[in-house]
Structure formats: structure tokens, C-alpha cells
Amino acid sequence: MPFTGNRSFKDAPRMIVGADGCHYTSADGRRIFDGLSGLWCCGMGHNRREIAIAVADQIASLDYSPAFQFGHPKAFELANRIKGMTPGDLDYVFFSNSGSEATETALKMARAYWFKRGKPGKSKFVGRGKGYHGVNFGGTSVGGIEPNRTPYGELMDIAHLAHTLLPENAFTRGLPEHGAELADELEGLVEACGADAIAAVIVEPLSGSAGVILPPKGYLERLRAICTKHDILLIFDEVITGFGRTGNCFGADTFGVVPDILCLAKTLTNGTVPMGATVARAEIYETFMAEAGPDYAIEFPHGYTYSGHPVACAAALAALEIFETEQLTRRAAALAPHLEDCVHALKGLPYITDIRNFGLTAAIQLEPYPGEPARRPIEVALECWEKGLYVRYAGDALALAPHFIAETHDIDFACNVLNDVIGTLK
Ligand code: PXG
Fold this sequence. Notes:
Layout: H1 6-11, E1 16-20, E2 23-26, E3 31-34, H2 37-40, H3 49-61, H4 73-85, E4 90-96, H5 99-116, E5 124-128, H6 137-142, E6 159-161, H7 185-193, E7 198-203, H8 219-229, E8 233-237, H9 251-255, E9 261-264, E10 276-281, H10 282-290, H11 310-325, H12 328-344, E11 352-358, E12 361-366, H13 375-386, E13 389-390, E14 392-394, E15 397-400, H14 408-423
The protein binds 3-[O-phosphonopyridoxyl]--amino-benzoic acid.
3-[O-phosphonopyridoxyl]--amino-benzoic acid is lined by residues 39-40, 98-100, 103, 132-134, 204, 208-209, 237, 239-240, 265, 392, 394.
């Protein structure tokens, strides 16, 4: 089972047998509020009929078409739709099947880009502490959550910037004040190994998996400026922040910083069909096209059997239609202040050492048991499940990411359960 304590699960299985809107139904017939939109991926609500119909129609008309050397119209329609939503000249889309593949594609794209630009030595990647970029070897290497790395021995040789979770920012509402200067570490790395050795920096605009770690005010702008100054590509992994979570379409919009490559997945299909996408600036695409040899040659020798799968494209087109017609970024932005008020009202309960929030996401940091990191949040999350709330734990934090279509009373319910459970901790 993925990232699951197999033994404890099998001792006491938590089976989900149905879903509707913002709720699950457990095998014992209980209605559970979905406090994390699945795994950050179903913000438009579960079981959307429009997506179900689009998927069924697609399987009945073109269930699969070969991804290599052939195309189908919905892949181009979807790419153009994404192009119309992304900021700047992030105009060229490469499809895959997950967030892990979207980031892996971005890393390979960055290296191949410099190769084509005649700078094969520009091959190093810079990640960030506590970053999460999926579970393939490249993503694991640039990732910075130690327990996800240590079992696998030698990974790629990556430099990691310091994470931005600073004690002086504890209990900040929204973006923290302190820590923009942490971006300057990149200047130090450039001095140490030379800009000619660094291909790209990859960060999540805000880290979800590690427990909603936010960029200090000005941090991303500084990172962008240093990358531009030294001709280093900036990759934003927006697998979580893409499509609405920050109250705009992308974190890039919210933070006003345009990367060179953008990684998407999750909400792209509202979680219904696996799909990832890597979006590159026009200049990157044009470099691949210009330096490709004869016209039958393959410009980017990369791709998956299921890249741009017709069923995934149909699901994504239907999902993005819902996303835009229901103006879900607005809805997420309108609900965010209520989430902020409700989570910060939990301050003062036992063991809470920090509360963070931004857009439609929040985290509650708990003091660990001595020598047993992560145990307390698991205990709290399991107790919440018994009381009708699904909440995720990440390290020492509990994470919330309600559906964009959630109502204020749903947020009240989630925070009341957290209040009861954390409030009675011994
Ligand atoms: N990048 C980011 C920023 C992610 O959050 C991935 C890549 C990988 O996506 P796939 O589709 O390969 O899983 C992710 C995934 C959690 C949680 O509890 C977060 C993710 C997945 C599962 C659980 O926070 N993020």
C-alpha cells in the first residue's frame, strides 16, 4: 500500500466505499467530511456527473490511440486550454500520468534544453529542504523530505536550499514576514559550483506534502531574480497549487512569479483519471525544434504509452469546464478567510506549536512525542476519522485542503472535530 502502515491498516482497515460532493461514505456506513479533497486532487467535488459522462463517451468512441507518432484532437484541445490558463508564455504542454512523471519530465526537459543550447555541463539540479516532487528517482533526489530519501541509498547529486519553515513565523495568518533572504542561498551555490553547472531550480510555490510550508513574502521573487540573472531555469512544481488551491488558477499567478517550466497533475482531472502535464515557455519549445536535425528526427526522446491518454484528456476537459464555468478560483478565494479564522481559533489547544494557512489550505503543527516524530498527528487523524473527518497528517502537522465547493459549515464541522480531538489530548 502506498505510504501506508500496512500492518496497522490491515489490523484496522479504513475502507471508503462511496463519495459525493465533499463527503465520503465509509464501509461501516458513516458520512465522512473529506478535509483534503482526496489527496489534494478533487477540489471540484466528488462524482461530478459532467466528468463521468465525458469519460464514458470517450471510452465508447476512442478508448486509446497510440501516443507516439500519432495524435488525437482532444490532446491538442486540452493543451490549448491549459495554454490559455497559464501565465506568461508558458505555452507548450507535455502530458504524462502523474505528478511524479510531470516533475521527471521537467527535469529531463531542463537538461536536454541546455544540451541543445550547447551547454551540456549545465546539468545540476537544486531542490529545497522538505520539498516533495513525487517518488521517481529524479523527484526523490530533488525532494527534501528525508524519510522519503534515506531508504534508497545513493540518489542524484543535488544541492538543497534551506526550507522556509521558521519558528519566528509561527501562527502567521497567510504569508510569513521572515525568510525572503533564504533565497539568496542560491547565490552561494552559484559561487560554489558556477552558474555553468546548474540546469534548474525546482520548488513548490508552497509545499503541501511537508505540511503547508509557505513562501515568505518576497522569497519567490528573489529566487526568480537570481535564476534569471544566472540563466538557471526555474521549475514550479504546482501539482498541488495548480488549478485553484491558492485562490487563483496557479501559484504563479497568486505570487506574481512566472517560472520557466510548470508541473501540473491532480486537480487537472479533478482526481478522476490519472494525468500529469509539464508546461514549458515558448523559448524552450523553440530551442528543441530548432536544434533537432532532419525533420523526421524526434526532438525530445521522452514520453509514456499513456501520454495524453484520450480518457484522461476527456476528463480534464470536462473538469476544466466545470472549473471555469463555476468560477471555482473565486469560490476558493471567498472561502479562504473563513478557513483562516477557523484554524487560527484552535490556537491555545494542547500541543499546538504552529498554525499556518494560505488560500484554501492550512496546517496545524503539533509538538511531537519525545523521540517519536509523526506519532501524534497520526493519532489525532485516526480519532478524527472516527468522528467523521478525514484529515491528512504530514510529519508533525495535520493538513487541511477543503474542496473549492465546500460551504462554511463544512469548515466549521472540520474545525469543531479538530477542536474536540486536540482539545482532549492528554
Ligand atoms: N509534486 C508535488 C508538489 C506533489 O504534491 C507530486 C509531485 C507527485 O504526484 P503523484 O501524482 O505522482 O503522486 C505530488 C504529490 C500528501 C500527499 O499527503 C501529497 C501528494 C501525494 C500524496 C499525498 O500531502 N503529492
